[in-house]
Design goal:
The protein is of the alpha/beta class and 347 residues long. Helices cover 52% and strands 7% of the residues. Strands 2-3-4-1-5 form a five-stranded parallel sheet, sandwiched between helices. α5 (138-149) links the parallel β3 and β4. Bound molecules: zinc ion. Residues 58-60, 76-77, 80, 82-83 line the site of zinc ion (ZN).
Length: 347
């Protein structure tokens, strides 16, 4: 049986507006053919899609009233056979499509469109969740358009994506948009403590680094960021005094991180950000567990040089996303970090 505390809309944190919109649609029975959940990764879009499907299929759905909006206007009971099947992922009228590797391929969408030509198995209708819709290649997007142009019988299609500009405008215009926000820092901290068993200090640092995304926090956690953070900060601190050969060998080590390079660069960015912030706002630092180190390091360089380093890393991350040669980009970055001077406009 699903845990009472974590099924349906109650399982979603920090998204009062999306929940209000979705539960109102359910309560009024005015459900559009297609919904588009927009928002950063790791803020609950997919959980909300499952909650919606559960409430949609639930046979014991209750519609409490007059509670001042604290309890969702319509939510699943969590115990009927339909709810159990949604929770177990075995409901025949809940279909899911997700990227295989990095892409949703055209054959996946064609299979879905074919399945939608048949009637739902049960009377109530059908929910389709197409997660990370931005992973559809153009061919797959066009195949999906067909389903949107001639909406199948008793079917709600839920797409999730980071931003609507990542999708074909013709898809976006056929969906009702529901916008999700980043999670608050206290919420992230609590989730990391409750679900991952982190101690308060570790949860606080991760929550500060994760930019409101639970999945980002989990990725940082999985890469053993504390150990790596220590290594990275030691390297960055020594960088200005090192020879060119040693600087380039550091660039090579960064290159060797491969998939974890973006996380490492974000960590480096948050370190320099702390150094830049500390002299003005000591309580604004993210790495609170490293305040003695930050105090020391912030004394050596002025704040503007560290702010310039933050921008250098930002620029490199941007270039890497646009397929710059990583080895070259890292060599250049490391040399510039070592020699960083405040940009003229920050003096
Ligand atoms: Zn139910």
């Amino acid at each position: 049986m699903p845990d009472k505390a974590v099924f349906g809309f109650r399982a979603i944190e920090d998204q009062p507006l999306p929940i209000q919109i979705l539960t109102t649609l359910l309560a009024k029975g005015r459900i559009p053919h297609a919904l588009l959940f927009i928002g950063p990764d790791g803020v609950g879009k997919r959980t909300a899609a499952t909650a919606f499907a559960m409430a949609y299929h639930c046979r014991g759905r209750r519609i409490p009233a007059g509670d001042g909006g604290r309890v969702p206007a319509a939510d699943a009971c969590g115990v009927c056979p339909s709810c159990r099947r949604v929770a177990a992922g075995s409901h025949p009228d809940l279909l899911r499509v997700a990227p295989v590797g990095d892409t949703i391929r055209v054959h996946q969408v064609r299979e879905l469109v074919e399945a939608l030509m048949m009637k739902p198995f049960e009377g109530a209708g059908r929910v389709v969740v197409l997660a990370q819709a931005q992973a559809m290649n153009p061919e797959a997007g066009n195949a999906l358009l067909k389903a949107l142009e001639e909406p199948p019988d008793r079917t709600v299609l839920i797409l999730t994506a980071r931003q609507s500009s990542d999708l074909l405008p013709t898809i976006v215009s056929r969906c009702q948009r529901v916008r999700f926000s980043p999670l608050s820092r206290p919420t992230l901290e609590r989730l990391l403590r409750e679900r991952e068993g982190l101690d308060a200090d570790a949860a606080a640092v991760l929550a500060r680094m994760a930019d409101g995304s639970y999945s980002h926090a989990l990725r940082l956690h999985a890469t053993d960021w504390r150990k790596r953070c220590g290594w990275l900060i030691a390297e960055l601190t020594a960088l200005p005094q090192r020879s060119s050969a040693l600087r380039l060998s550091f660039a090579e080590k960064l290159h060797g991180l491969k998939d974890q390079l973006p996380e490492a660069l974000e960590m480096a960015m948050s370190w320099y950000r702390d150094l830049a912030v500390y002299p003005y706002r000591p309580d604004g630092v993210r790495h609170r567990d490293m305040i003695p180190l930050i105090r020391q390091a912030a004394r050596r360089e002025d704040s503007a040089a560290n702010a310039a380093r933050v921008r250098l890393i930002q620029g490199t991350l941007h270039d890497l996303q646009r397929n710059a040669n990583p080895r070259l980009a890292l060599d250049v970055l490391v040399m510039r970090l070592a020699a960083a001077r405040p940009a003229p406009w920050t003096l």
